[in-house]
Write a structure and sequence with these properties.
The protein is an alpha+beta fold and 289 residues long. The protein folds into two domains: 152 residues, Sandwich (Jelly Rolls); 107 residues, Homeodomain-like (Arc Repressor Mutant, subunit A, Orthogonal Bundle), CATH 1.10.10. The chain has ten helices and ten strands. Strand 4 and strand 5 form a beta hairpin. Helix 2 packs antiparallel against helix 3. The longest helix has 22 residues. It is globular.
Length: 289
């Protein structure tokens, strides 16, 4: 998952996509957005930081966090044991097919620190639905009828969200128009494809026929992050597999992924993982032995 528009690819026979996360290692998923409604549900352990449109949450066992369509979000987890969580994606078109006014509303559905007794009941119903949905989804490879069960439970999930958690869409949403979505998508796609190159503000502004000042303000306004931080997030994520799966020198990895120097790579890496790349690699190898 990358800090850009993400196209959610579905199982061809199922209306949703589900990812089950079980890693006990430290993980950082940079900011990104997509049109699908996403549900983060922690089965055990915790997610240390979920960023959603300027707000941050810590999600523990049993917590549900619904991320609305086109909300900019990211995830960060520290090392831990027995972590298990799901990310469930519902295409916005699937919701609109049963609720055409979906463009006018969004979901206020975050269970963290909710103490109201009626809300607890509503979240309990939601957890029961999600647990059944997980079981049916996992059964889909072996049971030819599982897709029917998944579809029916997805309709029930949408019903619960609309009945108990629907609110009028806030006008302050960061990405407010299709025009801005398309522009942001073009910018992030270009950076993703060219992150190994020297991407200066002047180069990017010329590429998209925008002034450097406007491009900087536009990107910061709609993502809450500077262009440089975005570029570094992409470079960091792309470098991680090479760091963990090879013995290449840190300098070589830094230059392979667009960082101008080993010092620059160390600084960006440490800001996320609290260790330098070499320290992190050494510790992970030690933990595996």
């Amino acid at each position: 998952m990358e800090y850009s528009y993400e196209l959610i690819k579905l199982h061809e026979e199922l209306p949703i996509k589900m990812i089950i996360h079980t890693s006990d290692h430290q993980t950082f998923i940079p900011r990104h957005w997509h049109e699908s409604v996403e549900i983060s549900y922690v089965l055990s352990g915790k997610i240390d930081n979920i960023y959603i449109d300027g707000k941050e949450y810590e999600s523990s066992e049993g917590d549900i966090v619904v991320i609305n369509s086109n909300a900019i979000h990211s995830f960060s987890v520290n090392r831990g044991q027995n972590r298990k969580a799901i990310s469930l994606f519902i295409p916005i078109e699937f919701i609109k097919a049963v609720y055409p006014d979906m463009d006018q509303v969004e979901f206020d559905c975050i269970s963290i620190n909710r103490q109201n007794s009626s809300e607890n009941k509503e979240f309990t119903m939601l957890r029961e639905n999600l647990n059944a949905l997980i079981n049916a989804y996992l059964d889909s490879e072996n049971n030819p009828l599982a897709s029917i069960k998944v579809t029916s439970l997805t309709y029930e999930l949408i019903y619960l969200l609309l009945k108990h958690f629907k609110i009028h869409k806030k006008s302050s949403s960061r990405i407010t128009t299709r025009k801005y979505l398309e522009r942001l998508t073009m910018i992030t796609n270009f950076i993703k494809e060219n992150y190994q190159q020297n991407l200066s503000l002047d180069l990017l502004s010329n590429q998209f026929n925008l002034s450097p000042e406007y491009l900087s303000r536009f990107f910061m306004k709609h993502t809450g992050m500077t262009l440089l931080n975005y570029i570094n997030a992409i470079r960091l994520e792309k470098s991680f597999p090479e760091l963990m799966n090879t013995d290449h020198p840190i300098m070589q990895i830094a230059l392979n992924h667009g960082f101008p120097s080993e010092k620059s790579y160390n600084r960006v890496f440490k800001s996320i993982y609290q260790f330098t790349p070499s320290q992190y690699r050494k510790e992970q190898k030690y933990n595996r032995n």
